[in-house]
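Input/output pair, single chain:
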Amino acid sequence: MEADELVRGYLVLGLRLGRLVSGFVDSFTGDPALSRSVDNEPRLHPRALAGHARQLRAELPGCDLAEQRKQFLDAHLRALECTARKLDGERIGFVDEVERYFQVRIRPGDEDSYAHAHRKLDAVLEGPGSLAERLTAFRTADEVPARRLQGAVQAVSSALRDRVRRTYALPEQEIVEYQVVTNKPWSGFNHYLGGYRSRVAVNADLNHRMSTLPHLVAHESYPGHHTEHCRKDAGLVAQRGCAEQSIFLINTPQCLMAEGMADLGLHAAVGPGWGGWAEEIFRDLGLRMDGELSEKVESASSGLLTVRQDAALLLHDRGGDPDDVVAHLCRWLLVPERRARQMVRFLADPLWRAYTTTYVEGVRLVRAWLDVRAPGETLGSRYLRLLDEPLVPVSLENEVRNGLSWLAHGSPENIA
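Output:
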């Protein structure tokens, strides 16, 4: 099979699955005629689509494509086959399902480490009352008033955009439009529209806080999803002809890569001191934020990263009662029941049930990869590879292992 034919087959397969699962195609900026053609054909049975995925994977080794593109397509065709098999009614264990989607094998976190994180939070948030009460008080004082949310988002976005554009070239016409919405299972969502334009929806139901809003905007826009879409659109697609990058499909390895790098967007764009940086932005809006304390709380809370993934395992792998999952989230994340139920709503959604892993394992993997930089390599240049290359989780894992070996032995020549 010719390379162009195989890539077209991948795009068609993704679009066909998108007709069976609403929201499965997050964005498609390729040939509109291809999309129209799929829209006008009869819907195919999931079993036929699973067979198509297997056929394309079998053809891939003999195809005239660069090895990095083959690795990307192989990983994604495996994920699409899993989606089709599940749609066909096949029972696939939750842990196996997650691995086929995202190339990671998940397991429960360590409650001792969660208790240690609680002790660190307890030391940071001094004062009377229980830790949960003190954390609730901190979060309440940190909230952005609902009527100020749109303006706060725009101000943070403008500051991040200026910063990111000084580091990473972006098309002059790129733009992000923000909308405040309600009644959604997520906190924010980037809709990439093509032509270097994004529409970012921010869910007002979640009482956004000054200490989390910079993370959300960095995640969705600069240097996160919007920036990645723009650079891959301009580079991989327009310049290098990698048409497979014109489609973004839910429950595929590209999701874990995208969410991991986006969650570390503020780390890459601002780094230590982000609290004071954000405090100045909010001060100009007449809002009072304790930036130093916010950084300390975030650092102490980092040990709770896997709690949400535990909740997914409890719900889908162990058949736990939703009320028990809510209790688990309330206990370890120290969130109110209303917030925990919002999280369970996301976990229970048929499309998003496995997706929490993209944030948890994505952050863990991308941070480890960013930390094993070669001598003289900057964080900015390392992050640029995430924005520009068609990387998959397995390739990052291999580089982390090689990087750790290099650090241990002091010379790349010593790596087997």
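Residues 411-416 have pLDDT under 50 and may be disordered. Residues 111-303 form one domain.
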